[in-house]
Amino acid sequence: MQKIIILDFGSQTTQLIGRRVRELNMYCEIVPYNKFPFDDVKNVKGVILSGSPYSVYDSNAFKADLSRIRGKYPVLGICYGAQYIAYTSGGTVESAGSREYGRATLTSIDANDPLLKGITAGSQIWMSHGDTITSLPRNFKVIANTGDVEAAAYRVEEENTWGVQFHPEVFHTTEGTKLLDNFLGICGAAKDWTPASFIEATVTELKEKLGDDKVILALSGGVDSSVTAVLLNRAIGKNLTCIFVDHGLLRKYEFENVLRDYEHLGLNVKGIDAKSKFYSQLAGITDPEQKRKIIGKGFIDVFNEEAHKLKDIKWLGQGTIYPDVIESLSITGTVIKSHHNVGGLPEEMHLQLVEPLRLLFKDEVRRVGIELGMQPHLIKRHPFPGPGLGIRILGDITPEKVRVLQDADDIYISLLREWGLYDQVWQAGTILLPIRTVGVMGDERTYENTITLRAVTSTDAMTADWAQLPYDFLAKVSNEIINKVKGVNRVVYDISSKPPATIEWE
Question: Can you give the pTM of this predicted structure?
């Protein structure tokens, strides 16, 4: 399969570069800046260098030997990548005095340059750097500038190497996708990375890899594990056994609804009711991290117990996706974070891993699910945390608190769907606060629970803004919850963005 290699120098938008390239139907891989796959270059069509939090002249700056890359492949340096190419070729990069950050305009461009084909003068771009190229090496040619930046874009003459000091991957660069598409054209890329091609190739690979072996998969009801299950089922059928554990912290009716959905998909699913086990282990626990660990270990114990009841299981299926893999490695290639989908199950299970989605971003997983014929309500489900309502009940967890939160959450999510707002929101849910407030119902004073409503908009959960839901909708939700959920007399709305807040409260 043809591919573009993206060398990650630590930019916060490296994954975004990858997503933009994938959206252009071109397969790409993100690797640490010093891990170019020289032993597997047959299908490499081009290389992109990302931005970085460092200056090229910092002692801690990430440095890569480009001598075996430049001249052999088309290369595009973005921000730090552009500065690094110029700096290591004899150019000068200096502090800009003040950060060049935010919107800018291309005041002039070389319309004959293949990278800028179809890009218009006056086009908006997005700058984000504290340094700038003050002089280019002899064989470098400026192909675009702004009012403040002379070398906004350049090309190395007699070499398929370009650099741009702005970010074509971000939304605010209005013709950034066109620029990246031009680069793929320079690379001679086939651009045949589509959901249909992925499914065909993956099912074939799974059949060859698994043969008649049996696979066990833990289902969560979420998009990733569901698409994984359907892909594996298409490849090996009844040799796949799925386990869906109800830890008592799911949404209202979710256990029954998800099992029904999976049954319609023809999956071999075993549902396990483990509510009492989890409630017992969580009794009196208030620390969020301890709750997470108890829920995680409890899930593994239940799954492990069920797995041992099955015979001849050789593989463990997981819904690992590409961001999980990337975030589990630093740009130096060392493990910096254990992700819930990258490892994590007991070694004594002695199972091999099969992760058919590990090359996909979340939006690609959804497109694959649609191509597989899965129902939209399964594909467009909001993300839901593994610990479930356990981290949306602040303080200790009891069956009664779960009941209160499930009832409130069911009203909120149902009304989001009814008002046509569900698909406009990345994630929504309710939080039960560990405080009681005074209220009045009828002629009596009450002293009952407070529910927080949370809804955010996002593209990848790396950043998120609070959703500006209509006031009349919020009024309706508040009224319904207070009138219908016993034990609640106050509803508030969270208007915090990420950062500085997080999407979940614990």
Answer: 0.77
Tokens of 86: 């110029």
Q: Write out pLDDT tens, residues 171-228.
A: 889 999 999 999 999 999 999 999 999 999 999 999 999 999 999 998 888 899 999 9
Active-site annotation holds for 187: no
Catalytic residue among 28, 79, 187, 242: 79
Beta bridge partners of 128: 101
Give dist(CA 359, CA 334) in Å, integer: 19
In angstroms, the Cα distances linking 274 to 28, 268, 269, 293, 305 are: 41, 19, 16, 16, 12
Q: Among 167, 175, 242, 254, which one carries the catalytic annotation?
A: 167
Tell me phi and psi for residue 137, to 5 degrees.
-60, 165
Helix (H, G, I), strand (E, B) or coil at 461: coil
Q: Report the interhelical angle of 399-418 vs 471-484 (nearest 10°).
A: 140
End-to-end Cα spacing for the chain = 42
Active site residue 205: no
Dump strand ranges (E) for 192-289: 214-219, 240-246, 269-273
pLDDT digit string, tens, across residues 67-85: 999 999 999 999 999 999 9
Question: Which residues of the chain, if any, have pLDDT below 50?
Answer: 332-344
Is 79 a catalytic site residue?
yes
For 120, the token pair is: 């218009």
**255-265 in b/e burial notation, b at 16+ Cβ within 10 A?**
beebbebbeeb
The type of residue at 218 is: A
For residue 234 the two structure tokens come to 């298409």
Say which of 100, 129, 169, 254 is annotated catalytic: 169
Q: Do 294 and 280 meet the contact criterion of CB atoms below 8 Å apart?
A: no
Q: How much is the pLDDT for 335? A: 36
